[in-house]
Amino acid sequence: MTYKHIDLKIENHVATVAMARVDSLNALSLEFASEIAGCFRELGANDDVRAIIFCSKARIFCAGLDLKEAAAGASDKIKVVLDVIRKSQPLFDCCNFIEECPKPVIAAVHGKCIGGGLDMISASDIRLCTKDAVFCLKEANIGLVADMGVLQRLPMIVGQGFAREMAYTAANYSASDAEKMGLVSHVYADQEKLMAAAQELAAQIAANAPLGIKYTKEVLNFSRYVNVYEGMALAVQKNAALLMSDDLKEAMMSFLERRPADFKGK
Questions:
Q1: Residue pLDDT, tens place only, 176-218
Q2: Structural domain harbouring 233
Q3: pTM over 0.85
Q4: How far apart are CA 260 and CA 98, in angstroms?
Q5: What percent of the chain stands above pLDDT 70?
Q6: Residues 134, 26 share a domain
Q7: Which of 56, 196, 201, 65 is nearest to 133 (CA)?
Q8: d(CA 75, CA 62)
Q9: Residue 92's domain is classified under what CATH number?
């Protein structure tokens, strides 16, 4: 897998997806968003990958939507407006495919995370950041409504109050603010410590049974939109399949033999 704006590395079952549209501070153009979507779709189907770190090679995490590209397509003609919406599908896909990827995604944020950047990390499973990180939901400040899923996903992470405050004010929120509201799990002194922590966390995830992790993510995602009993029913259904898996047998044998399990994802 080769990409124009993504630096991808896979090692020890952990994929590191580093956004590398450096000169544009990872501003989301349609081409870039399409690459991100395609990358997560391909990693989701790669059996060698068990966890994903999503980060940036630019001096910030993401500057948000590529406003130069968006302005170039602006028009008051309804036909053109509808065409712009249709062509914007890659922007929606890059978030949806992160959320739907069967492998857990750890977003490692440094510097500014603006607009579409916040959309993408809201679609991730776990968020970590550096102490210099800044988060901003910018759309209201430029006369738009955030439409890449953040208004749907963010309240489930930080609650309605914080989500509405971020959306209505379009203000900057510090790493400390983000940690207090639960947007990020941990804050680190610098990017080096951030990436080390992300690697450690990804390794912990990758050491577990891949099918168990895959189905756990599926049940967690499904359970956000249904009642407890429906969520439990899906979990029982997944366990019925897992009871026949080689990984469960390996877990039992490794316990009895007092050794680390060697899971194969089968």
A1: 999 999 999 999 999 999 999 999 999 999 999 999 999 999 9
A2: 210-256
A3: yes
A4: 30
A5: 92
A6: yes
A7: 56
A8: 26
A9: 3.90.226.10
